[in-house]
Amino acid sequence: MTGPLDPPGFAPTNRSMEVEGVDLWTLRDGRIARYRAFYDMNDVARQLGIAPAAGGRPEKAMIALQRLQARILRRSAR
To answer: Which residues contact 52 (CB under 8 A, 6 or more apart)?
Structure first.
C-alpha cells in the first residue's frame, strides 16, 4: 500500500494487503445503471496494522471502550 486508500482515508503504510469483496452491477439497456462494491475494511485495516489483531488485548480494550461509550450514550438519551 504505497498510496492512500480512500475511502475510508487510510494513509500509505508500505505493507501488502489482500482484499476480497463483492461487486454488484445493475445493467439497463446494456449500460451500467448502478455499481456497488462491498469489502471487509476491518480485515484490510488489520492487514495494514491500522486495527489490532482479532482476539488480542488491544482489540478487547477497544471493545470495552466502545461498550462504555454505548452505555453512556444510552443513559444520556433518557
So the answer is: 46, 58, 59, 62
